[in-house]
Amino acid sequence: MESQITEMEESGGWEPLRWTDEEKYPEPPKLIILSAGPGATIAKEQNPHLPMNPEEIVENHVGAYNAGAAMVHVHVRDENGFPSYDPELYKRVILELKDRCPDIIIDCCFALPFENDSLEIRLEPLCKLDLPIETGVISGGTFNVMGQTIYVNREDYLRKCVTYLQEHNIRPEITLYNVKQIVDMKRWAMDSGLVEKPLLNLSLGLFGDPAQRDVLQTWLRYVPPECDWIAETAGRNWLPVTVEAILTNQGHVRAGMEDGIYMYAHRDDLIKSSAEIVTKVRNIAEELGREIATPAEAREILGLPGK
Q1: Would residue 156 count as lying in a domain?
Q2: CA quadruple 152, 137, 61, 281: dihedral positive or negative?
Q3: How many domains are there within the chain?
Q4: pLDDT digits 0-9 by tens, 13-24
């Protein structure tokens, strides 16, 4: 074939495009999949498949882990199905998860109660139990959530949060909901010297900017290159924006029952489990040539010592 091409070139005939001369793109980092569910925003009436009691929540996370999630984001519900911050429920779920999946990375929510930004109320009840929590979510600003509720996160509190979590060997995961919060985070967390390499949870479609592919691309122009980031996309359009995040070949993705009710933006197919979502995201990523990180590889990427 090469000789035929050479002959045609020499005779002034057809000449192929020089695809072989193209520079190869850099190898992307392996993709960390963080699975979340049941969260604190979806009701059982909206999706009957949503896990509620500790046994169901553990099974949901184990399924996600077996499907390829290196990390799981833990919430719990009370006996009435309402979001809870009962430390004993968290302890029960987390220890059972670590017993069944010893290398799983536990990512915990430190958001509740929304209206009171106090270390003593939000962080201490869980942290003093010395559970194997490796990353902990805090939110990078104050805004309206869930109807009439104000989610309070003053900058003085956020600085204290970061320091407190670091002292407890938990890497802070700062959730941001719009470009202004990204810009503010750089000032209060990075420029101040508090954090050299923040871990960000970029949340689209929940309490701030909408889950749209162009919005994610806009956000990424403001995210400092030193940051590790995970894209959390909520609502009907979660899958296209998640694929957009995968295609950046930079950050990582969150996928689970916490952030959506429907599998597709254009249909009413209910999400049946976090494993179903993780499987879909994993298959898409692998078809795009991006390998999936194991828990050990995720720890190396995020600089986690392990617990």
Answers
A1: yes
A2: positive
A3: 1
A4: 677 777 777 888
CATH of the domain at 104: 3.20.20.70
Flag whether 18 is in a domain.
no
- The residue range of the domain holding 202 is 30-302
Q: Do residues 83 and 112 make contact, with C-beta atoms less than 8 angstroms apart?
A: yes
pLDDT in tens, 263-276: 999 999 999 999 99
Q: Model-level pTM greater than 0.85?
A: yes
